[in-house]
Amino acid sequence: MKFLSKFRRLTGPDGSKKIARSALECELTQKLRERGAAGDFSPVRWGLHYTGTVQGVGFRWTTQNIARERHLTGWVINREDGSVDMELQGPSVQISALMDDLQDCYAGWGANICLSAARELKLEATETSFEVRF
Questions:
Q1: Global pTM?
Q2: What per-residue confidence (pLDDT) applies to 3?
C-alpha cells in the first residue's frame, strides 16, 4: 500500500476531520490548480514556510514521502523557532496536491498546520530528488 493511502484511511472519506486552511494556502492552491487546468505542466519552484504542529510529528518525513510519490524535488528543514521551511519543484498541480495531502494527513490527528509564507523561486536545474535537511 502506498504511503498516502495509509494516511487517507485516517481522515475518512467524507473529509470531516479537515482543519481550516490559511487564506494564503487557499489562494496558493487555487493559483496552482488553475495553472494546471490551463494545461501548463511545466515545472515551478515554491518556497513554503509552515507553522503550527510541524515539529515532533514526522512532518519532514511525511513531506519527503509524499514529494517522492508525486515526483517532486526539493528539500524540507526544521527551524529553531518550531516552524518548517521547504522548497518544492515540479508541476504546479503536484505541488498543490502535496499541500492537500499534508492537510489530510495531519487533520486526521487533529494537528493544525498553517502555511504562513510562500514565494515563487527560480528553478534548480540540477536537482534530482527530495531530501530532509538537518
A1: 0.87
A2: 60
Residues 6+ apart with CB under 8 A from 81: none
Catalytic residue annotation = 60, 78
In whole angstroms, what is the distance from residue 41 CA to residue 96 CA? Answer: 12
Q: Are 79 and 85 in contact (CB under 8 A)?
A: yes
Q: Which three cell numbers mark 122? A: 527560480
130-133 and 73-78 strand pairing: parallel
Residue 42 has which C-alpha cell?
511545466
Cell of 114: 498553517
Could you list the mean pLDDT of each consecutive 10-residue stretch along the chain, which spans 134 residues? 53 55 96 96 97 95 98 98 98 98 88 95 97 97
